[in-house]
Design brief:
Layout: H1 9-22, H2 25-39, H3 50-61, H4 65-75, H5 79-95, H6 99-112, H7 117-127, H8 130-139, H9 144-154, H10 160-163, H11 166-178, H12 182-189
């Protein structure tokens, strides 16, 4: 399809997403840039900003949080992507040490999607709101991110079933690292 139309939005987006998942960031960037060019050809606020979101993910993975932040902000205007984008912006804010702004973006993400458990957990951890973390565990009793947030705040037991699943421990550490909370991630990995 790309031989017929090298600027086809859907094909460039699919290839960009595929290359991103494979870790071929240069190829992903080329495909996503073409997709965004086509997407914004007639409208700077497209109906489906997925290409912007995927390019933001790419920039974040490449260590360009400022570029990622701008792209997440561009993609956040569309309701379907708003919660995810605002969560990522909140994580970048937290990594920059701007906790108040992070909490604001996480709160906006929760207005859009009240069941965004990662946003709830991160907001609860940043504000020290134990009740919010307990609410997450009521909705999802095995949520390791929330369990470790409570462990970090209050020393609560995370549960032997969690510690027995190394991938869950790594995932929780990565959730904290995503928000720039590296010391917390190291403490989690040491459990």
């Amino acid at each position: 399809a790309l031989r017929r139309d090298p600027k086809d939005l859907r094909c460039n987006l699919a290839m960009g997403r595929s290359m991103l998942e494979k870790g071929d960031f240069d190829a992903a960037r080329a495909y996503l840039d073409r997709a965004i060019d086509r997407l914004k050809m007639r409208n700077d606020n497209p109906a489906d900003p997925e290409a912007l979101y995927q390019k933001a993910r790419l920039e974040r993975l490449c260590g360009n949080p400022d570029a990622a932040y701008r792209l997440y902000a561009d993609a956040s205007w569309q309701y379907g992507w708003r919660s995810s984008c605002l969560y990522e912006m909140g994580c970048i804010d937290a990594a920059r040490g701007q906790r108040a702004l992070a909490v604001e973006h996480l709160t906006q993400a929760l207005v859009t999607n009240a069941h965004h458990l990662a946003a709830r957990t991160l907001r609860g951890y940043l504000t020290g709101n134990v009740q919010e973390l307990e609410e997450v565990l009521k909705l999802s009793p095995q949520d390791t991110f929330a369990r470790y947030a409570l462990w970090l705040l209050e020393g609560r037991d995370v549960g032997s079933f969690v510690c027995g699943r190394p991938q869950d421990v790594i995932d929780a550490a990565l959730d904290f690292m995503r928000a720039g909370l590296n010391a917390e991630a190291v403490r989690i990995l040491d459990t």
